[in-house]
Each structure stands twice: as structure tokens, then as C-alpha cells.
Amino acid sequence: MSARAEAFFWMLTHEFGHAAAVARETCWLPKTVQLIFRDWSDAGVCTFRENERKKDYRVDPLAWKLFFSKGDEILWLAQPPFYKGCIKLLGLLEKIERISDQKPEFRGLLIAEHFAEIADAFAEAGHSACFASWEMYGSGNEVTEYLLERTSIFECAVVSERAFSDTYKF
Q1: Rounded Cα distance, 169 and 149, in Å
Q2: 169 domain-assigned
Q3: Structural domain that includes position 156
Q4: Burial letters for 150-167: b for 16+ Cβ neighbours within 10 Å, e otherwise?
Q5: Does one domain contain both 63 and 84?
Q6: How high is the pLDDT of residue 20?
Q7: Residue 42 lies in a domain
């Protein structure tokens, strides 16, 4: 995706945005985003307000609503924490696989040790639905089965893009 497309999408899903904040969540350079905002402001695509030494920009989502299907909800997914959560989840699943011959209680402890970190990364990304309701369900095999079930549901939801909707029930 291009910097303009990602910045525009970010702006549609947030009330106001500063170039540095948008750059951080889209992984583009702040100067690139700043130049994009300046161009958009000159062209009337966005407005801005000045706060002390910074400018916060705004795109009116209602002005662009005609380009979306009726009922479409625009949701933002912060990519860096999302991929951080995916990598941590994959790492945990690999650790569980390596110790599959160990006692179930040991696997349960390993999951409990790492799960909050995974859930936090997905929550920071704006996607907390699948792993937010984590509670310890028994111990050992029950905890492992619960994690694998949630991971499977998450994987299917990501493939169908439902994972990015906070209204989707896991």
C-alpha cells in the first residue's frame, strides 16, 4: 500500500491526526506523512487545527461515505502491534509444540506466562476481540486446548477479515 492510501485510511478512522502519530502507526516516515498532509490541506482534502507547535489534521469521513458500501464500517488496524502479537503467538505455539511431551501443567504455565503479552499486543493494534476474554480455564490440557481453539478462530477470522471488527463475536 502507498503512504497516501494508508494515511488516508488512518485519517478516516480517527478524529484528528498528527503526522508523527500517523507515521508511527503506518510505518512511514513522519516527513513523508507531513508532506502528504500539507498537499491534502492545500487541495482541500483535509483541514487542520494548530495546537502550540503542531498541526492536527482531519478528514471528514462523511464526505467520503459515498465511496463505501452501505453498512460498511471503516476500522483501523495498527500494523506494528498486530504483527508483534502474531509473532509472539507463533512463538508461543512453537514453544508448546517443542514441549508437547512434557506434562500438561507445564504447557499451561507456559501459556499463562506469555498470554497477557500477546493479548496486550492485539489490544494495542485495535483488535482485542479474540484474546481479550482470556481466563484460566482449568489447567494443563484444558488451557492448551483453549489457546489452540482461540488461535484457530482467530486465524479463520483474519483470513475472512472479520478479526478486525470489534463487533465480531469469538
Answers
A1: 14
A2: no
A3: 79-164
A4: bbebbeebeeeebbbeee
A5: no
A6: 92
A7: yes
Q: DSSP readout, 33-98? A: HHHHHHHHHHHTS-EEEEETTEEEEE--GGGGGGGS-TT-------HHHHHHHHHHHHHHHHHHHH
pTM > 0.85: no
Once rounded to an integer, what is the mean pLDDT over residues 143-165?
68
**Residue 34 confidence (pLDDT) above 80:** yes
* Grid cell locating 11: 485519517
CA pair distance 50, 54, nearest whole angstrom? 6
Q: Is 70 exposed, middle or buried (0-12, 13-18, 19+ CB in 10 A)?
A: exposed
155 and 83 within one domain = yes
Query: What's the grid cell of residue 106?
Result: 507445564
Same domain, 58 and 84: no
- 170 assigned to some structural domain: no
Number of domains in the chain: 2
* pLDDT, position 37: 93
What CATH number does the domain containing 54 carry? 1.10.10.10
Q: Looking at this protein, which amino acid is placed at residue 91?
A: G
The answer to whether 19 touches 32, Cβ cutoff 8 Å, is no
pLDDT in tens, 81-115: 888 888 988 898 888 888 888 888 888 888 888 88
